[in-house]
Amino acid sequence: MENIVIREAETDDAEEMIAYLNIVGGESDNLMHGADGFKAPVEAVKRRIQAQHDAANSIILIALAGGKIIARAELDGYPGARLRHNAKFSISVRKDYWNRKIGTMLMTEIIECAKKMKLHNIELEVVAANKAAIALYHKMGFSDVGVYRNYWFANDVYSDAIVMQKSLED
Ligand SMILES: CC(C)(COP(=O)(O)OP(=O)(O)OC[C@H]1O[C@@H](n2cnc3c(N)ncnc32)[C@H](O)[C@@H]1OP(=O)(O)O)[C@@H](O)C(=O)NCCC(=O)NCCS
User: Fold this and answer.
1) Which of 27, 70, 100, 140 has CA 20 to 30 A from 109's CA?
2) pTM value?
3) Where are the beta strands (DSSP E) in 9-105?
4) Number of domains in the chain
């Protein structure tokens, strides 16, 4: 298999990350934006990468193949003393690389980061029809905790999202 490098995103990755998000959005109905739907300017993305780096409960990881971004995962920690032990998780992988364990590798790495940051819980929402993501999340120890009704809107259809949480305290 191709050599895959996983590392924290840096501000110099901002331009390529925008291009990545605009491509990957067109490869799946299960991401927040469709093709070319990510409109933030480079400077805003640089600030976001720096902010997540600086925060004690957040991190953005990227996976690279041949020096190109092929996957991205984020823990977005909550602000506020009463919530900051929780972070929201998100992930995407370029379609050419699906089912090659890139998601598993990124999640394994980000869970280690979460433990080092002393997070107690990681949470996420996943569209109920997204079988690959659900299989991955269950494998990585996430449990279903509820359902958000009509949470997702894609292709003119509303669909439910499953809410999941992984406890890091066990
Ligand atoms: C979901 C996603 C991140 C998974 O990444 P990946 O690199 O393909 O993940 P992995 O190869 O590590 O694992 C995928 C798992 O799903 C399983 N899977 C794939 N398709 C499946 C299906 N239709 N039904 C059930 N399980 C499925 C695979 O067998 C694998 O499980 P295993 O490791 O036990 O064999 C990737 O498909 C993706 O980016 N999709 C588009 C964006 C997205 O949906 N993001 C998540 C939003 S909540």
Assistant:
1) 27
2) 0.97
3) 59-65, 68-77, 86-93
4) 1
Domain that holds residue 90: 4-122
Yes or no: say if 71 and 128 are a contact pair by the CB < 8 Å rule: no
CA atoms of 95 and 67, how far apart (whole Å)? 17
Q: Ligand 1 centroid vs 82 CA: distance in angstroms?
A: 33
Q: Which residues line ligand 1 (CB under 6 A)?
A: 28, 30-31, 91-93, 98-104, 126, 130-133, 135-136, 139
Mutate to test the pocket of ligand 1, among 20, 27, 76, 93 (most ligand atoms within 8 A of CB): 93
Q: Does a structural domain hold residue 168?
A: no
For residue 143, the cross-strand partners are 165
* In a domain? residue 127: no
CA of 4 to the centre of ligand 1 (A): 17
pLDDT tens, position by position, for the chain (170 residues)?
689 999 999 999 999 999 999 999 999 999 999 999 999 999 999 999 999 999 999 999 999 999 999 999 999 999 999 999 999 999 999 999 999 999 999 999 999 999 999 999 999 999 999 999 999 999 999 999 999 999 999 999 999 999 999 999 86
